[in-house]
Amino acid sequence: MTMDSPENTPPGLERVPRATLVQLRSFEAVARLGGVGRAARALHLAQPTVSTQIKELATAIGMPLFEPRGRGLALTPHGELLVGTVREIFATWQRFEEQTAELQGLRRGRLRIAAVTTTEYFLPDLLGPFARAHPGIDIELAVENRDQIIARLERNEDELTAMMLPPTHLPLHRWPFLENPLVIICALGHPLTQRKRLKLAQLTHEPLLVREAGSGTRLATHQALDEHGIEWRPRMALGSNEAIKHAVRAGLGLAVLSRHTLGDDPAREGLAVLQVTGFPIRRMWHLVWRRDRALSLPARTLLQDIRSRLGVRTAPAP
Ligand code: PGA
Questions:
Q1: Within this chain, do residues 120 and 153 fall inside the same structural domain, yes or no?
Q2: CA-to-CA distance for 161 and 209, rounded, in angstroms?
Q3: pLDDT tens digit string along 239-289?
Q4: With contact defined as beta carbons under 8 Å apart, do 170 and 290 qualify?
Q5: Ligand 1: which of 147, 148, 215, 285 to mutate, most ligand atoms within 8 Å of CB?
Q6: Which domain holds residue 170?
Q7: For residue 3, is it within any domain?
Q8: b/e map of 183-209 (b: 16 or more CB within 10 Å)?
Q9: 164 CA: nearest ligand 1 atom
Q10: Positive or negative torsion for Cα 97, 152, 243, 124
Q11: DSSP one-letter code for 305
C-alpha cells in the first residue's frame, strides 16, 4: 500500500482540528439543555469536567461559544454555527455505525430507540424477544415526554420512535401498532365509583390532575375535553404517570391516563377506572421513523419481529 501524497489529502484534513469529540459532545449537551449542570447530569459527568471541556473548546476555536442570559447560558453566533456542525458530525458518525452494523448483519451493532414515557409500561416486553435473540445488538432506549421526543426526532437522533401523537411537521413513516385507551381514574372507594355511567360534565367539580406541559397524555386529555365542549381546568400538573397515580390514590383528584399505566387490576394499586361516556378515548401507539433515513438491519428486524408477534396486518414500510 502506498501512502497518499500530501496533494491528495481530502479538504479539511491537512490540519487536524484541536477540538475533541468528547468536548463537542459536552458542548452539544450544554447547548441543548441550556446549562452546564443539566448537561453534566445527562452525560453522567462532573460539572467542573464539563466546564473545563467547554473552556478548552472555546480556546481551541478561538471564540466564545456561550454568553450568560438570565440564569442560564445562550449560544453566541459562533456557538450557533458550531452546534449545527457538531450535529452533522455526530449524524455522519451514526450513519457510519449503522452501515458497519449492516456489514456485520445482526451479530453486532446498536439500535437507538426513543419512546414517550407512557410506553415504558409495555415497551420492554415488546423489545424483550428481539433483545434475547440478538445479544450482540446494544439497544439504547431513551424515555422522555412527547415534546422532548419530538425534539429528538427533529435532530434525527434515533432510528425508531414510539409515541401516541406523531408530529405532522416532519417527514415520517407512521405505523399504528397497538391500541392506547385513555381512561379516567380516581381513588378506590371514591363515591363516583358507585355510578354506572357518568357524563364528563358530572366530573368537572372534582380537581383534575394532569401531566406536565409537553406530555402527549396531557395533550390528548385537552383534545378530548375540547371535543366534548367541556371546560375542566387542571388543578395540578405532575411530572410523571407514577406521580399522577400516587396523587390520585391519595385522593387529590381525578386524571386521564393511558390504560397501559395501570396493572391488570387497578384496585391493587388503590385506583379505579370510572365509566364515563366517551371514554376510554381510543388512541393508537405508533412506531415512527424518518422518511429521509434508511433503517438499519436491526431496526427492520425489530419491526418485523413486533409485527409478527402482535399479528398486526398493516405492514410497516421500511
Ligand atoms: P407522554 O406520552 O404523556 O409521556 O408524553 C404520551 C405520548 O406522547 O404519546
A1: yes
A2: 27
A3: 999 999 999 999 999 999 999 999 889 999 999 999 999 999 999 999 999
A4: yes
A5: 215
A6: 93-178+284-310
A7: no
A8: bbbbbeebebbeeeebebeebeebbbb
A9: 9
A10: negative
A11: H
pLDDT in tens, 113-161: 999 999 999 999 999 999 999 999 999 999 999 999 999 999 999 999 9
Query: Which residue puts its alpha carbon closest to atom 8 of ligand 1?
Result: 216
State whether 174 and 289 are in the same domain.
yes
**170 CA to centre of ligand 1 in angstroms:** 18
Q: Do residues 210 and 190 share a domain?
A: yes
Residues in the chain: 318
| Domain presence at residue 223 | yes
Contacts of the segment 32-39: beta carbons below 8 A, 24+ positions apart: 32/83, 32/151, 34/72, 34/73, 35/72, 35/73, 36/73
Would you say the CB of residue 94 lies under 6 angstroms from ligand 1?
Answer: no
Q: What is the pTM of this model?
A: 0.73
CA 258/CA 119 separation, integer angstroms: 9
Distance 171 CA to ligand 1 centre (A): 20
Closest protein CA for atom 6 of ligand 1: 216
